[in-house]
Write a structure and sequence with these properties.
This protein is α/β, with parallel strands linked by helices. It folds into 2 domains: about 5-330, 3-Layer(aba) Sandwich (Rossmann fold); about 350-625, no CATH class. It has 24 helices and 13 strands. The protein has helices spanning about 10-15, 20, 75-80, 105-110, 125-140, 145-160, 180-190, 210-225, 240, 265-270, 280-290, 300-315, 315-330, 350-365, 370-385, 395-410, 420-435, 440-470, 475-500, 505-525, 535-540, 545-560, 590-595, 605-625, and strands at about 30-40, 45-60, 65, 90-100, 110-115, 195-200, 230-235, 245-250, 255-260, 565, 565-570, 570-575, 585-590. α5 (about 125-140) crosses α6, α14 packs across α18 (about 440-470) and α18 runs antiparallel to α19 (about 475-500). It is found in: Membrane.
Length: about 625
């Protein structure tokens, strides 16, 4: 039976019998004690506490909401609990416990998954494909294909996505899922690995109240059914959404104002003198109570907040929480995970990523389709401007200009790859933080999936521009031109990968790449001959300029084996370059090369230089991604 074409009844049956796939029998509790995060204030240079002695306890199957006004520290706490970087330059104190015992990062990554605030999904994949690739990237090789499909079908059923299984996620130019459906896909793609602890960063951000309830209700039902522990930072949920949570941790200015059952909020705040009105959203009331940003009297608001913090710290509920933490640590049961059966095959990860990127590349026209069209237009423009240049001395300058333009501007237009790469980088960052793969697999897949498209672009450009421009007419010369242009594009795209990895902000990456290409154009030997180039620019930049080697290779390819007719004025032959063919009223092409200081050999050596530069860009890109672990 083909599992991918099951009826809805079969899917529902799978959803009922999938307890073995997703049920949590490993983690009974997750707790944290005295979590404190300190940073240095940029203005005063004094230590500033973002979180102060925050504690919490969560049992299997429960959902806790981390709430508080903007700047309260809830996102920082979520990152600390998920073993992610709290914030740049922060000092983190405190401990987290699984079943009352501390666990290392490797174990914790295998137990947990993190759903980002922004949906990092590939818009050109369908829902089923998205879950399929999530499974292939995360599940161990011991899971068979039929078991993997069964898990996917179970999740589609559990999250109500059967009808959307073959719908695209959606791109800027192709409409796909709604916001609520995308959030459900994001959560489902993390549940494919059967995590025991699920972290959600603002899961209802950008959704209306109905969609917010829909998403969180699916999460709650899943948590209850499979005993998953869910920790979610959430800003201000509706009443119905708020009631889905079992526990609430209310923060303000990094300190705890309440930490306990959501059902006990009214009684707790009424008991300390803050009676909650009957017909009001409890979440809205308590956020207003602890928010001092918009208070008319800041002194009164600060005093009220101080009372709330102090009252909680001295309350019986806080004492009971501490007792639960102590009891949990006393009866700790350390985890014993088998690391050999919880990871995907690392040797197959690049192939899986290449498969996913290939689907994206031919469905999403922004990735390569628009670039191909752009390069073809550039080829037509170049070919018709430098149209059918005859091999005469008056055209030598024009031919040289065309060679420079063909290499330099093809390289420059690689900036069009930046948006597609940044989208891939965003997805990589999310998946790396969830422990799926590292920079090696990502960059290998990125490199190899781009090679066929870059070669296709090279061929299409060359077929149009080379023959329209009437460059040296031979098959050997044409394919040599193709080789240099292909290496030029590979190097240019490698530079984009390096700079965009270093500065993953579109406008900044665009400016940096444009500046680098401008620099390479200036020192590549066309503007100023290499032998007369300023010593600093020559020895610091010219010899590492990949465009310089492309320009040199194309010049040698054109002028190394071609002759050009001199000008005849009043019956006398006048040659602008001295060569051995002057008595024949011809210019030997090597005379043009001598002006630039180019020899006619050692092509292999310069190809080797290009390969070293390409490898260097990719290696430095790998180093950047490796060092940026958060």
């Amino acid at each position: 039976m083909n599992l991918s074409n099951k009826s809805s009844v079969d899917v529902e049956k799978d959803a009922i019998n999938d307890q073995a796939y997703f049920s949590n029998e490993t983690v009974n509790s997750f707790s944290w004690s005295d979590v404190t995060v300190t940073v240095k204030d940029r203005r005063t240079k004094q230590p500033l506490r973002i979180l102060s002695d925050v504690c919490g306890f969560l049992k299997a199957g429960e959902m806790v909401a981390l709430m508080g006004p903007s700047g309260s520290g809830k996102t920082t706490l979520l990152n600390v609990l998920a073993h992610r970087a709290a914030t740049l330059g922060a000092s983190v104190e405190g401990s987290t416990y699984v079943n009352g015992a501390q666990s290392n990062l490797k174990d914790f990554r295998k137990l947990s998954s993190f759903v980002e605030q922004e949906d990092a999904l590939v818009g050109s994949l369908t829902v089923r494909e998205t879950l399929g690739f999530a499974a292939r990237l995360a599940l161990p090789g011991s899971v068979t294909k039929s078991e993997r499909i069964a898990r996917i079908n179970s999740l589609l059923g559990a999250f109500g996505l059967q009808k959307q299984a073959h719908t695209l996620i959606g791109t800027p130019i192709r409409k796909g899922l709604s916001g609520g459906q995308k959030r459900r896909v994001s959560v489902a793609s993390q549940l494919i690995t059967s995590p025991k602890i699920l972290f959600l960063d603002e899961p209802t951000s950008g959704l209306d109240s109905a969609a917010s309830y829909e998403v969180m209700n699916f999460v709650r039902n899943t948590a209850k059914k499979y005993k998953i522990l869910v920790i979610a930072s959430i800003h201000q949920p509706s009443t119905t959404t708020f009631e889905l949570f079992d526990q609430l941790l209310l923060l303000s200015h990094g300190k705890t104002a309440y930490n306990g059952p959501t059902t006990g909020i009214r009684d707790y705040f009424a008991g300390i003198g803050y009676e909650m009105p009957t017909y009001i959203n409890p979440a809205e009331y308590i956020i207003q109570l602890v928010n001092t940003d918009f208070a008319q009297d800041h002194t009164e608001a600060a005093a009220r907040l101080n009372v709330l913090h102090t009252t909680w710290a001295r309350s019986q509920q806080a004492a009971n929480l501490q007792a639960r933490l102590d009891q949990s640590r006393q009866s700790a049961s350390p985890l014993a995970l088998d690391h050999t059966h919880h990871s995907a095959n690392p040797y197959l990860l690049p192939l899986t990523l290449m498969h996913r990127s290939f689907i994206k590349s031919y469905r999403d026209i922004v990735a390569y389709g628009l670039r191909i069209a752009m390069y073809i237009c550039l080829a037509i423009m170049m070919g018709t401007i430098w149209l059918r240049l005859d091999p005469i001395q008056s055209n030598i300058t024009a031919i040289t200009n065309a060679i420079f333009f063909g290499g330099a501007f093809m390289s420059f237009m690689a900036v069009a790859y930046i948006p597609a790469y940044l989208e891939d980088l965003s997805l990589y960052t999310k998946e790396r933080l969830n422990g799926l793969y590292g920079p090696t697999a990502f960059l290998l897949a990125n490199f190899f999936i781009g090679i066929p498209y870059l070669f296709l672009i090279t061929i299409l450009f060359s077929v149009v521009a080379y023959w329209l421009g009437n460059f040296r007419p031979s098959a050997e010369a044409f394919w040599t031109w193709v080789m240099w242009l292909f290496l030029d594009l590979v190097a240019a795209e490698s530079l984009v990968v390096l700079l965009s990895s270093l500065i993953p902000i579109f406008v900044v990456a665009l400016a940096a790449t444009a500046f680098a290409n401008g620099l390479w154009m200036c020192v590549n030997g066309f503007m100023v001959e290499p032998q007369t180039l300023n010593v600093f620019w020559r020895y610091v930049f010219h010899y590492i300029d990949y465009q310089a080697y492309v320009f040199r290779g194309m010049m040698v390819n054109e002028f190394g084996k071609r002759k050009y007719a001199c000008e005849v004025v009043e019956g006398a032959c006048r040659c602008m370059y001295k060569s051995a063919l002057e008595d024949q009223c011809m210019i030997e092409g090597t005379a043009v090369l001598e002006r630039y200081g180019y020899g006619n050999g050692n092509v292999g050596k310069y190809v080797g230089y290009m390969l070293v530069i390409i490898f260097g860009y990719r290696l430095f890109g790998w180093v950047v991604l490796y060092l940026r672990k958060h």
